[in-house]
Design goal:
Strand order of the largest sheet: 3-1-14-13-6-10-9
Shape: elongated
Distance between the termini: 14 Å
Structural class: mainly beta
Largest sheet: 7 strands, antiparallel
Radius of gyration: 24 Å
Number of strands: 14
Mean pLDDT: 76
Amino acid sequence: MNFPCRTLSFVLRRLVMLPVFFFSLNSYAQVSVTPTSNSSDFCVTGTAITLDNIRIDESATGDFSIGSYTVQIILPVEFEYQLSSPAPSVTSGAGDIFQATGFFLTSKVFQIDVVCIGNTSIDYLEVSGLVAQAISSTASSDITFVSGGMVSGLDTETIELTSDAAPTVSAAGPDQSVCITGGVPVSLSGNTPLVGTGTWSIISGLGGT
């Protein structure tokens, strides 16, 4: 008997413009964030999953301030990055961003060191390969961004992460020996799940309902 795991889903907490997922909260120029939408069979303390790419796009030249500064992608307390996974990659437009180097500052903070040398082109930052895992109780909390005001509008953007409780462990009851003749019925006594749903399946042999 197996109880299927619920999923970890990624949704926008702020304004959602379907079918393309962008934040657009103010009339003045600011970056837009394309958030992760990946979901998988993922439960609290379950298997880590690779998030879809997170991309930060300029809406106008100058949204990325000129200078050297950091951009941090911070997980909520109920989640952590899997540091043993291959290093995530950071790419940027071939314009005013001279350098963008990413690394894990902690298990909850991925930091990008940015060097921007101008404001003549529309640029972007894109992070791929971030792997996250839920580590505590069920939660619906936000990924946040910190740039110290150096990236216009970024510090108010969020991406919501939602995790579900792990399913109840299945227990099919004690082993039973049954004669193959005689038509004697057998009672199956599996436990009732508190989280998830349970189904019976025939592992080997024929017949049975």
